[in-house]
Amino acid sequence: MVDKMTPQQRHHCMSSIKGKDTRPEIVVRQFLWSHGYRYRLHRKNLPGRPDIVIGRLKVVIFVNGCFWHGHSCQKRSPETNKQYWHDKIYNNRIRDYKNHSDLESQGWLVIVLWECQLTRVHRRQATLDQLLATLHLLEHPTLRPYQLPTADDDVPTLAAEDPEIYG
Q: Which residue has the higher pLDDT, 156 or 124?
């Protein structure tokens, strides 16, 4: 398929894509703020300049665009200049891996949220609820995320269904 835009139009379109304050990032920030989590944005002294940094919990959150970071949900690649885009996305993934490794070696917990996880309302809420549960466990490490039902409970145990997870 031939590109429907001229090279100048394509350049203008691609150069206007923001790297900060994207809609998915703002959704996560508003959610965290409304639940009492305070954070810093794009700290320059950390590898990769994480989108959100919760210093007291030593957590960094990256809100990645699926196309730019090569998420598996992306089924199509650009039709024009294929080698350029392949190399660009590949290099982005290599850089992300290195930044995440560096952060983890410094003791940070790295959380990556993908754009596709924050678009549809039901998926967005599930993703944000899981993020909130993770942060809550970091604040209160003595709490268990899931307790198996006892024999007295009138609920079937999931441990029998999946012994690897519930031991």
A: 124
Beta carbons of 58 and 158 less than 8 angstroms apart: no
Can you give the three-state secondary structure of 41-68, one letter per residue? ECCCCCCCCCCEEEHHHCEEEEEECCCC
Q: Hey, how many other C-beta atoms are within 10 angstroms of the C-beta on 167?
A: 7
State the chain's mean pLDDT as an integer: 81
Task: Give the separation between CA 128 and CA 31, rounded to whole angstroms.
Answer: 7
Going by their DSSP bridges, the two strands 59-64 and 109-114 should be labelled as parallel
SS percent in the chain: helix, strand, coil, step 5: 45, 10, 45
Mean pLDDT of 76-105: 90
Integer Cα distance of 137 and 126 in angstroms: 17
CA distance 110 to 107: 9
Q: Is the pTM of this model over 0.70?
A: yes
